[in-house]
Every structure is written in C-alpha cells, then in structure tokens.
Amino acid sequence: LCAPYASSWLGPETLTPAHSVRPRGYLFRIVYSAHRDLGSSEDGAGSDSGSDFEDSLWKGSKRGARTPLSCSLVCSLLVHFLCANLSVVDDWLESYKQNKETGFLELINFFIRSCGCKGESPCILRSLTESCTPLCLRGPDSAEYPLILTTRPWRKFRAGFCELVAVLVQRCQYSIMYDEYLLDNLISLLTGLSDSQVRAFRHTSTLAAMKLMTALVRVAVGVSLHKDNSQRQYEAERSKGPSRRATDKLEALLEKRRQLQEQQDEIENMMNAIFKGVFVHRYRDMVPEIRAICIEEMGNWMQNYSVSFLTDGYLKYIGWTLHDKQRDVRLKCLKALQGLYCSREMASRMELFTSRFKGRMVAMVLDKEPDVGVEAIKLLTLILQNMEEMLTDEDCEAVYPVVYASNRALAAAAGEFLYRKQFDVEWEAGREKGRREGSRHFFRLLLAFFIESELHEHAAYLVDSLWDCAATQLKDWEGLAHLLLEESPKEGWGDQEENALIEVLVSSMRQATEGKPPVGRGPGKKVFSARERKTQEDDREKLTHYLIPLLPQLLAKFSADAEKVALLLQAPRYFKLSLYSSGRLEKYLEQLLAQVREVVEKHTGQEVLEAAARALYVLCNPEFTFYSRVDFARSHLVDMLADKFQQDVAELLQASYLDEEEVYSMAATLKRISIFHNAHDLTPWQLWEPCFQLLQRAVDTGEIPKQVVVPTMTCLHFSILWELAHITGASPKQLLDLRRKVASFCSLCQSCLSDVDAGVQEQAFVLLSDLLVVFSPQLVRGGREALQLLIYEPEVALQSQLAGFLMDHVFNHTELLGSDDEDTEGKIHRLHQRRNLLAGFCKLIIYDVLELSAASDVFKHYAKFYKDYGDIIKETLSRTRQIDRDEWARTILLSLQQLLTEMLLQHGPGPGSSKAFLEIRDLARRFSLLFGPRRLHNRQALFDMHKAGIKFAFQEPAPSGSEFGPLNLPFLELLSEFSPRLLRPDKKVLLAYLGKTCQARLSPQDQAKRWPPILTYRRSLISLDDMGLDTSQDAMPRPQRRPDSAAKKRRLDGEGQMPHSRPVWEIVGVALLAGTPLSARLKAGCQLAPETLSQTVPLGTGPLRPRITAAFRVLPSLRNRISAILSRTTWVQ
C-alpha cells in the first residue's frame, strides 16, 4: 500500500522491486473491491466487475445502493483544520455501522491524506497506482508533509489529528472496538505504513499508532477498574449467608467479570500488537521526531497504566534512549522519567532502573544542550525527594558546581537541587528555635558551602541561583545586618565569612530591586510584568526601612577594610532614597555622609574610592529635598581635596628634590580627585591649570613619578569632557579655547607615548583614543553643526605613533607570554589590558579618525593572534566592510603585501612551501571567506584587488642569480585564494591582463620558464571554457534542487557519485533518467574511452539496475545515440 505513494518524494525510479509491496491482504481487497464497484457505477466501464471475489466482499448488501464515498472527515480536518470533536466521529460511526467496508475506506482515505497525499475516494485505486501530489508546498519533489509544518494552521491540524484518534477510540470502547474488524484492520494499516521507507507515511502512521495506543491504555484502565469493582461486588455478595445470597446476582456478576476479562485480554492483545509492530521498530527510527513521539507516549502509558507498563521490560527502552544524539529525544526521555519519579509510590518500583541508569542521568547534567541539563537536574531533584538514598554524595557533588554556570536556567535548577539537599531540612529545623536562629543557621550553611567548596569567588552567582527557591531567606536583610553587627556572636564570623556575608547582602538587594542576573550570566528577563514591578518596589521599600538605620553602623564597624566598605557603599543604589525625607530619617543621612567622607580620607584604593564617588552621585539628585545637604557635604569634601592639591603642586613645582612622603601625598590626593572627577563636575575648582603645569613639567624634565603623572592626565581628560558637556550656545571664543585645550592635551599625551614607564604610555594611549573619538567628525551629527570648530584631526606623526605603540604593546609575543613568575590571574589581567588597547585603536578606525588603510596593521595579525583578539579583529573587519567595501578590499590586500614583504626581508626569496608563507596563505584563505557568496556585490572590489595584486607581484625585478623569478612573485599564490569569488568574465579579463603583464615585465627567456606561482594563479583563473570543454548552457548540468531532508540528500549524493570503473552504459543510463544532458555527465571527469562501448560489465543488483534496464527498454536505439554523442565529445585526461 505504501510503495505507490512513495513516488511523490522518491520518484518512481527510486523504488526497486525489492522495495515495492504487493497489494495483498484483506485491507487492500476492501479498497480494491470498493473502487471497482464505485468505478463501474460511475463510469460504467468496469470490465472485471463480475468477479466472484468482489461479490463475496459485497455479500449482504445491495449493489444498487452503493454511493460514492464522502470525505466529510477529511474535509473537517484537512481543509478547515478544525479540531476533532464528538459530532465528527459520531457521523463517521453511523456510516461505518451501515457499511463497514465503505466506512473503513473513508478512514483509510483520511490517514493517506494526512500523510500529504491526495488519496481521495472514489479514485483511491488510481491514487495507489499513480504518483500522488502532496498537499504541502514546493510540488511533488518536496520532502514536507503536514506533520512537519510549523505554521499555525498545520499545528492546529496536528492537534486535531491526535484528538480524533483519541475520540475515535473513546466512542468505540463499548461495542465497535471488539468487532474484530475496525481496530484490527486499522492496526494492520498503521503497522504497514510505519514500516514504509517514505518518511511522511512512517511519521504520520507512527504518531497515529502511538496516540491509538494511549487511547487504548485509557480504555484498559477503565476496564480494569470495572473488573476490580465487579470482583469486589462478587466477593461481597458471596460472603453473605445462604438465605441472603442472590444467586441470579452472583451469576450476573460472574458473567460481567468474564466479559470484562475478555475485553481486557482483547485490548491487551491490541496494545501488544502496536507495541511489537510499531514501537519496537520506531523508537530507534532514523528520524528524531519519530523517536521522540515513541518515548513521549511511552511515558504516558507508564503514568496512566503503571500496573502493566511500569516494569523493567518497558523502562529499558527509555534508559537506552537517554544516550540518543538528538536533543529533543533526550528531552522527551527526561520529561517522561520526571512524570514517573514525581510519585513516591512509582519511584519505589524503579529501584533497579535507577541503579542501572543513574550514572547516565547524573552525566546529563553537563549535557552540551543547556535545556537538557536543566531537565536532568530537575529529574535528580525528584529522585532526591522521593528516593534520597539512591543519590550518593559523589552524585550530588557533580551537580553542585553547576550553580555557577553561565546559563541562568541551568544554574537555577542546580540551585534548587542544592537547596533541597543542603538547606531545606536544616533551615526548617533551625526555624523552630526562632526566626533569628533559623536565619543564622541558613546563612551559616550557605557560607560553609560557598567557602569550603572553593568553586567561585563571587557570591552573587550563588545568590542568583538560589533566588527562585530561597528568596524568602535571602530577603532577610534585617537579620543579615544584625548578624554582621554582632560584637560577640556565639559562633564567631571569620574575615572571609564576613566578606561573603556582605556580598550576599548586597547581591540579594540587587536581585530583589533589579531582577537582573550577574554579569556574564544570561539571558535575563528583559520585560517585567506589572506584578513583578510592584514586588520589586515593595522589596525596595522594605530593605530601605531595614538598612537606612543600620548602614552607617556597618560602615563604621568595617571602615578599615576597603573590600567590605566598597561592597557596603553599593547599598544606596538600591534604596528608595525619598524615604530619607518622607520618613524623617535625615539624621541617618548625615551619619552616612560622615562615613563616606571618612572612607575617602582613609582609603586610596581604586575600588573603594569609585564606590564612594558613585554613592555620592546617587545621593546628589536635585529631585530630592535633601539635595542641599548632600551637595554641601560633597563641596566640603572636594574643597579639602582641592586645597591640599593646590598646596602640594606649588611645593612640588618649586622644589628641586621630591621627598617620598610628599610624592605619596600628592599621588593620593590626585587619585581621589581624578576618581571623583569622573562622577562629579569639578570645573568650579579650576583644576585645569595646575594639572596642566604638572604634566608639562613631567614631559619636560621626566622627574615627576608615574603615580603622579597618571592621575594628572586623567584629571585633564575629565576636565575637557565636563567642559564639552556644558557647551550650549557657546561663542566661537569658547569653542576655540576648548579646542586649544584639546590640542595641548593631545600633544602632551603624544609625548607621553614615548615615556620610559609602560603604565604612563598605556594611560596616554587610552586617553588619546577616547578623546580623538569624542572630537571626531561624528561630533557634529544630530544637529550639532555649531561644534564644527571642535573637530580635531590627528597629525600623521601621531597616527604613526599610535600604530607603533599597538605593535609594541599588543602584537608583541614577549608581552603576550609574560614572565614565568606571573600567576594566571596576572596574565589574564594583562590580556584584558591589551584587548582594551586594541579596541581603542579599532574605534579610531571605525569612527573615521584614522584612515582605513591603518587597519592593515591590525588585519595582518588576524590569524596569528586569533585566540586572544580574534573577536575584536573580526568585528572590525565587518564594520570597515560596511563603511567602504572597495577601500576595505585594498586594506586587506595591503595587509597581505606587508606580511609578504616582512617575510622576504627575514627569510629571503625561496619556494612557497615555507612555514611562514603557508601561514600567510592561510590568512588569505580566511580573508577570502569574508567576501561571502554575493559575487555581484563584491565584483568591482575583487577585480581591482586582483589587478593591484598582479602589479605588486611583478613590481620588483628578480634578484641576480635567483631561480624563483621576481621578488614578489609568490604573491600570486595568495591572490589565487580569492579567485573562486570572481565571476567568469572577470577571470577572462584578469587572465589576459596577467599575460600582458608577463610580456611587459619579463624577458622572453623568463616568459618561457614555468614558475609555480604563475601556474597556480593561472589555473585558478582558468574555467572549463579555457580547458577546451563545451560549457554552453545546454551542456551544463542542470542545477539540482537542494534536498529537503537528510535522507533525500543522502539519496541524491549516492546517485551523483559515479565510480570511474563503471562502464559507460551505466553512466548513460543514469544521465538519461536523472534528466541531466549526457554530454555534461561524460565530461564530469570519468576516464573513459570510446572503445569501452564494446565492454559488457554486469550492472550489479543495486538500485540503479531497474532504472538502467528501463532505459534500455524505452530506448531501443540507445547504442547508436551514444556513439553519435561520443563522436562529438572532446575527451580529457
């Protein structure tokens, strides 16, 4: 039945006699007989209508009463895409009761059409003998069919298809199911279709069979319940005394139990037939969707009818499929097991299965697909709840590290597992002793895990992982603060525990008020619902009430510890600051400002000073009524710093000798000012002039130490930016004054690029790259044409210095390797610094500060430094290509020219097989891939690139006595990597241009030499036309359609690969049947000769044999046609 329909996908020639299925069996007789009678009644042309076989099939029915089959069921689902309902099934059942054959034929028609074929009756026999047309897209060669389409109507059709099968069994469960006709033949039909080679038949019938099995399981459960009830009634009646016992009732109950037992046996036989006929073969089908369907439905069977299916004989199929290569199949396995382990009763019956496959379930936590890992952890959590003794400490330790995973869902699932294992029971036990004691117990367990596991340094990731399951405990901010403020706790906190506890406090505040995961973990939720936003605001208000009085006390207690203070100063960012005024809490604000000032005066660390500056920035909001108080405190603090700085600068500029203490005091003051200048406008304190004099002195004399120069440059940089921010309607004089400051500062930074100290050089480079981008031509965009005077273009010398600095500090192998004594953390820090330097230089190119040709210094290191800077260079390549494609191609060419020149200077001329040259060629291959498949879009750029490359190759004459030709001749081999991107007409033009260049640049003796670079490049430009082959449109092979499925692709690939040893008859047969012109097939590289026509080689028994046999049968004069074609064909080696 399946074989004729396969022509829609495979083509009629693909099916061999071994694959075809003879129409036999009762099902086909019904179809055949019904069609013959209907066809004769319609057309009156049934030549064999009087056969005894047909008469026996229609015995008992009047021949004159036959009517054409209706397609109400098919129309309801395939045309209108409506979900199945009781009325549709009831209508069909009425027609089935009137005539079983006709009704069942309509059901066959429905399943065939559901596969994507037009199998409408009364023409069903014609459909079985002719190629059917799919209902889907792309015509008869499409591999698509209804079940794999994902648009909304077809998803609705799939749901309706599944529902119809379930409703059909539900409506037939009391009588028709046991008529030994409907379900028996339906199971036979689905079993046959599920064994088809056509994916559409196999997929659709497997889905129908599995849904049919699920429906039968539900019926079996109902029959089993009825049978148990009858048994209980029988036992109750039998236990009565002889005088009260009703004999008739006992006999009726016995008869009912016997009937229910027969029904149950028959249902189990049907389920056994489906399981052995469909599931056992299809659960390992090559199509992952089919395997997923089987596993999903088996999970339903085990949950609904655990008495029969929850055994090791069925569980083993799920256990084996846990190793499936496809993500969706593994997901279905895990979800099926979750449904089983969620019940303690069912889990207790799976001890053997758990012990056998527990290792695989634990290993799936680290699955390459994050969602599979999530489901695996959820499964282990259920096992932990219902079979705790099955998971050892080693199994649990395999899950714990996942709480620090970068994937948010995976980390949250691991957090819940950790909470159930470590914290849940203990916290509940501690909570019975009191709220404060329960909180202490929970946080002590949390810190013990965080510190003792030594898996990560930042508690923010652990808090984020536990937030979904332990948010109540983590939101106990008051309890956390009191634990930190305890002077003599019963069990003392260590320094490491205090640091972790403060980080937990700040992380929980951020999580509650912002709902964003930590840096590097995603994806986070982008849009919050109104309810979630309301919860966040409530949490913000609660934590503000709790911590406003306690924050100054915490800062006072830990004021000497920079790390703890830096964390605590982040708290005001998550406060509802309006409560300071509305809640009459101004006294706590004064205490907080006093603590911030004390921190600034006491510490010089970068992190703690930045935290203090941000805290003041958050509090200095003009919208708040307490703004004047905060502004006064800030001004007082900056006055103190500015006065000290002015005094130190005056002494330093006049002194001939710098005392070490004076230098330290000056450096500390400047560092505080530079950090505050980043967040606050310090222009009123007029710091430009003293800072500029100090930097000028450092450049002129070199006597100013590094720790003073670096913050001085930072202060000047922020002073310029704040002045630019305040320019609104400024006069030309103000603009010119600002431009003068920019030019002076850039000149001093340029001088610092050649400083002895590397830290000063890097700071100067960073500030220059940022400032040049700010004052680049993009400054006047967006209606800011009045700022035209501020555009600053760097001089050529500055551009050269920037490029040279990049070569010395970024693309330097010595810098990259670092010292042997440097630890891993130090190397990573240095790598981040170098990446920032490279990113700053690339910004100058992208924002048109530097010419695009300057990017050649970056592009030429793309392959060598791909591991460290590959992402930055690749993004720069992409951005610059969008700016100017032609100039971008010339820059790539320049990069290759520079590399070849450097190689020749180091190694001298030689063959193109050296390691250095192969590295350059690999880089050229990578660059060629960046041009992409859009040949017309890149045509002019590629053509100009090749012409310029040919000129460069012959630019330098050959060294005297050299055997390798012109000095730059190997560059042609690099150009050959870009030849496949050229269009055929451009290849011809370039080939001619190469010949003219050779004649003009080379002597006649050199032209006769066959240098490998020229031969390689010439071969890359030569097409089939230049090889003497007929490549006209008629002779070219027709482009094959892209296969729509993996199976079809394999079939096409298998047909297209012709071994050289096959005779020409076989090649010709394949060419004729495949629709490809014979001359094109013969020119595909097969080493044949005309005399092979006389050879007779057996064609074998493969799938090509019937196709070639058919070709000989259809074309009697094939031999003469082949001879005529061969006489006009040019044979090549």
Label this structure with key terms.
66% helix; mainly alpha; 1133 residues; disordered N terminus; disordered C terminus
Question: What is the number of strand segments?
Answer: 0
Radius of gyration: 41 Å
* Largest sheet descriptor: none
Strand content: under 5%
Flag low-confidence runs: 1-84, 119-141, 1028-1118, 1126-1133
Number of alpha- plus pi-helical segments: 54
First-residue to last-residue Cα separation? 48 Å
What average pLDDT do the residues reach? Answer: 79
The proportion of residues forming helix, as a percent range, comes to: 55-70%
- Structural class of the helix and strand makeup? mainly alpha
| Oligomeric state of this protein | single chain
Shape assignment: flat
GO cellular component, one term: chromosome, centromeric region
Organism: Pelusios castaneus
Subunit structure: Part of the cohesin complex which is composed of a heterodimer between a SMC1 protein (SMC1A or SMC1B) and SMC3, which are attached via their hinge domain, and RAD21 which link them at their heads, and one STAG protein.
Region (Disordered): 513-536, 1029-1060
Structure description:
The protein is mainly alpha-helical and 1133 residues long. The chain is built from 54 helices and no strands. Helix 23 (459-474) crosses helix 25 (495-514) and helix 42 (866-883) crosses helix 43 (885-907). The radius of gyration is 41 Å and the shape is flat. The two termini are 48 Å apart. Mean pLDDT is 79; it is low at 1-84, 119-141, 1028-1118 and 1126-1133.
